[in-house]
Amino acid sequence: MNKLAFAFLPLLAAGFILADDISGSKKPVEAYHVNQLDGPYVSYNGDKVFVKYIMNDHGKKMVTQDSMPVSEKSNLTLNVLTDEEGKTFTVKLKKELENEKSEFSKVSKQFIVSDIEGNFGAFRKLLQANNVIDANFNWTFGNGHLVLTGDFVDRGTQQTEVLWLIYSLEEKAKAAGGYVHYVLGNHEIMNMNGVLRYLNAKYVEHASLLNENFTALYGENTELGRWLRTKNVVEKVGDILFCHAGISAIVNKMDLSTSKLNKLVRPYFADSSSKYSTPEAEILYSDMGPFWYRGYYYGVKASTMQIDSTLSAYKVKHIATGHTVIADTISVLYNGKVLNTDVHHAKGHTEALLIENGKYYRATATGEKFQIIIR
Fold first, then answer.
1. Residues 50, 136: one domain?
2. CA 190 – CA 282 distance, rounded (Å)
3. Does residue 354 lie within any of the structural domains?
4. How many domains does the chain have?
5. Is there a single domain that holds both residue 140 and residue 269?
6. Which of 82, 97, 109, 345 is surrounded by the most beta carbons within 10 Å?
7. Do 138 and 63 have their domain in common?
8. 115 with 122: CB under 8 angstroms?
9. pLDDT value at position 159?
10. What is the mean pLDDT of residues 40-46?
11. CB 138: neighbour CB atoms within 10 A?
12. Where in 117-247 does DSSP place strands (E)?
């Protein structure tokens, strides 16, 4: 089809498309009366960047595509849906991607969320109600750190939108002196590996419309795939160690720094062969690894000695996880040493952990906060 003018994607969603001719001048073309359903999906091939959307044309799903030289990608304005009808936000592509560092010191204000699982509405309401972002998806958390402890994909119907929101907030936070940490969980790694048993069915259908298998949408030649590969599975932020599931006794014995642990797992994010080149990687991808372990909460429960060993090794006061729902609220265990942030967002029990002025709070989707740790 004709090349779409990306600056006018919001108009496209409203049913009017402008196209560029070869000279670059804009001319009106037939109104398609289409509405955006999913996307964007951004990929690279040679020196070109391609952007695709799934659109609704009179009840029929169709794909729109545009391309331009990679050298001009800074001119792209991507349009992303939200859970509110008629409300979208825009995203600019990052100039470059690089692996995240693993440790951050002197962080006084944090907002911690886990296991959104494609539920854009719950995520938006939580961030807006607690002044992390405003109604137009601008960063309003100042020099605070937003920490996301994994499983933001699968199950829900808006995981593409959730990922683009996180992606866009990273640059906005940095500009204000803040930071966004996206620590991967087992579901992000499953998506990259092609383990799709929890994926919402609409994404399999949309991948087929795009003439791809779903895993390729997060491949090494895509923007979201490249971005996800820069993330960590464990980070130290202030005096808290963050990982999706927890640190088992066997991982304690491996005596790995955060940076070494992340370096060991990163090559296998999208390796579905399960053939790891080191015994350390084999353990880290097992049920005892930092994105699958459940021993803080179920089964053979971790001992206080195990918890203390982790705290001592990483020189932190707390370990914060998602992964395992044990209550409808943020939970504190092991005398305040373990913080569980996984709640049933899909059932309306959305909460986050807020840390400010040395105090720890449960923060709700209506902006209420309740102190949970008193020092």
1. no
2. 16
3. yes
4. 2
5. yes
6. 345
7. no
8. no
9. 98
10. 98
11. 12
12. 145-148, 179-182, 234-237, 240-243
| Residues constituting the chain | 375
| Spatial CA neighbour of 180 closest among 162, 191, 164, 168 | 168
> How far is 159 from 39, CA to CA, in rounded Å?
10
26-42 residue pLDDT tens = 333 333 346 999 999 99
CB atoms within 10 A of CB 301: 13
Same domain membership, residue 170 and residue 109: yes
235 and 353 within one domain: yes
Burial of 10-24, coded b for 16+ CB within 10 Å and e otherwise, reads eebbeebbbbbeeee
Q: Is residue 169 part of a domain?
A: yes
Residue 84 within a domain: no
- Asked whether 201 and 208 are in contact (CB, 8 A), the reply is no
| pLDDT tens-place string over residues 140-163 | 999 999 999 999 999 999 999 999
Residues 204 and 345 reside in one and the same domain: yes
Question: Which residue range is the domain that position 20 belongs to?
Answer: 6-76
CA distance 134 to 151: 24
Q: What is the pLDDT of residue 30?
A: 38
